[in-house]
Amino acid sequence: MPSTLRFASLGSGSGGNALVVSAGNTTVMLDCGFSAAETQRRLVRLGLQPEQLSAILVTHEHDDHIGGVARFARRHSVPVWMSHGTWRGLRPMFDDVSVNLIEGYAAFSVGELHIEPFPVPHDAREPAQYVFGDGNVRLGVLTDTGESTTHIEAVLSNCDALVIECNHDAEMLARSKYPQRLRARIASRVGHLDNRAAAQILSRVKWPGLRHVIAAHLSEENNSPDLARQALADVLGCQPEWIGIAQQDTGFDWRDLS
């Protein structure tokens, strides 16, 4: 069967995050860091209605990723998947919500999507990032990660599309007005990837079948789309314009892997 996988972003950054992935009649949302009303507005922009969602997957408990999950899921009767560690700190928030717990990062399926969670170093209880597939193509998502691991690179190898964090430029962060403690947290091994670190990961997992690369979770204070694009383009040997950017206000439109 031909592939039907496609993906789009509702928005990406410290002000809120949500990504949608669709294969055939199955559509899931990864994180929901916006209000329920704003999430619905952004879904409509992509031609989706809440009742079309089969699931919401959660990466971790930070508010820019989970702030709207419980209310949206409750309002629209959408089941939620998250790790045990994430759920343990949020149980009261998810009363009357159908929650499915991910056991030891084991792979699972939602409708026509095969979903592979994997662990990442980040300052959260039990964070997970995900690879999505339909049996023909694979989409890898890696954000909110302080550094790479051999396991991360193994999981992301041979993906046909990658959404990868380019949170900050290291020099801009060092010169920023952020308090020293916040700068240290962002740059730490459990913080966020800078452009150079993201490019190094990309250099290890790229393959000739890679068709889409999106830079995500850019800091509005300590990065720029041009810097992120150039870092990734240098590794791929492509024009910077080929690299997509997940914007905070507009995310990015549908990307097709069919």
What keyword list fits this structure?
258 residues, seven-stranded mixed β-sheet, 9 helices
Amino-to-carboxy terminus distance: 10 Å
- Low-confidence stretches are none
Number of DSSP strands? 14
The percent of residues in helical segments reads 25-40%
Structural class: alpha/beta
Strand content: 25-35%
Give an overview of the whole structure:
The protein has 258 residues and is α/β, with parallel strands linked by helices. The protein has nine helices and 14 strands. Helix 8 packs parallel to helix 9 (225-236). The mean pLDDT is 97.
Question: Short summary of the structure?
Answer:
The chain has helices at 36-45, 63-66, 69-76, 84-88, 150-156, 170-175, 180-187, 195-205, 225-236, and strands at 6-11, 18-23, 26-30, 55-57, 80-83, 99-102, 108-110, 113-119, 128-133, 138-142, 161-165, 212-216, 244-245, 252-256. It has 258 residues and is of the alpha/beta class.
Topology overview:
Blueprint (H helix, E strand, L loop, with lengths): L5 E6 L6 E6 L2 E5 L5 H10 L9 E3 L5 H4 L2 H8 L3 E4 H5 L10 E4 L5 E3 L2 E7 L8 E6 L4 E5 L7 H7 L4 E5 L4 H6 L4 H8 L7 H11 L6 E5 L8 H12 L7 E2 L6 E5 L2
Parallel strand pairs: 3-4, 4-5, 5-6, 10-11, 11-12, 12-13
Antiparallel strand pairs: 1-2, 1-14, 2-3, 7-8, 8-9, 9-10
